[in-house]
Amino acid sequence: MDSLFLIMQNFLITPFEKVLNEEQISSLKKLATTPPDSSNDAFDEWNVTTLHPRIAEQLAALQQQLFVRYVENNQLYKEMFPEAHGLEELKMRKYTGDDFTIPDVDVKDLGTARRILSFVFYINKPETRGETVFVKFQQKIEPQEAGCVVYPSSWPYMRAEHSGGGEKLVVLGYIHYVD
Fold it and tell me: Is residue 124 within 8 Å of residue 168, measured between CB atoms?
């Protein structure tokens, strides 16, 4: 009963501290000084997988490790997840300003419906605030440089990112079903 309460209390939203090393943080911060691959009113975006393959490979291995820890920490059964799964390209986003982004969900069409788990790696800690807010659950995750939050990719996990009045850098990754 206690473990079920704990899982329901955190809604399967699981933060991990200090999972990135200094070299990874430094390389990603440097990448954020280059022109972005795409840009809109809410954020600039870089494809880490194509622009920094070595760091992307390290983060992919880290996603696999965090996946195992996520299952263990939440006392889930590994049989709940497919034995074979894939990883999507890693994208880095830079949020600026003092507003929240429009809430977004990681599964919103047929192309993204194969996502199982989402990963938000925090590259920096904004000067003030900067939390990731899971709207439905009213749960806030305070960003910690080198930390990560892992959560299910499905629609109840709509999130909004707050820039904290400065810059907020995150890398987004996903584990998904494969054919």
Answer: yes
Domain with 110 in it: 2-177
Number of domains in the chain: 1
Place 8 in a pLDDT band, splitting at 50, 70 and 90: very low
Which alpha helices (H) appear in 32-159, and where do they start and end?
48-51, 53-73
Rounded to the nearest integer, the mean pLDDT of the chain is 89
Give the tens place of pLDDT for each residue, 34-87.
999 998 877 899 999 999 999 999 999 999 999 999 999 988 998 999 989 999
Q: Which residues make beta-bridge pairs with 108?
A: none
CATH classification at residue 43: 2.60.120.620
Say how far apart CA 19 and CA 3 lie, in whole Å: 25
Q: Which helix (H) or strand (E) holds 21?
A: none
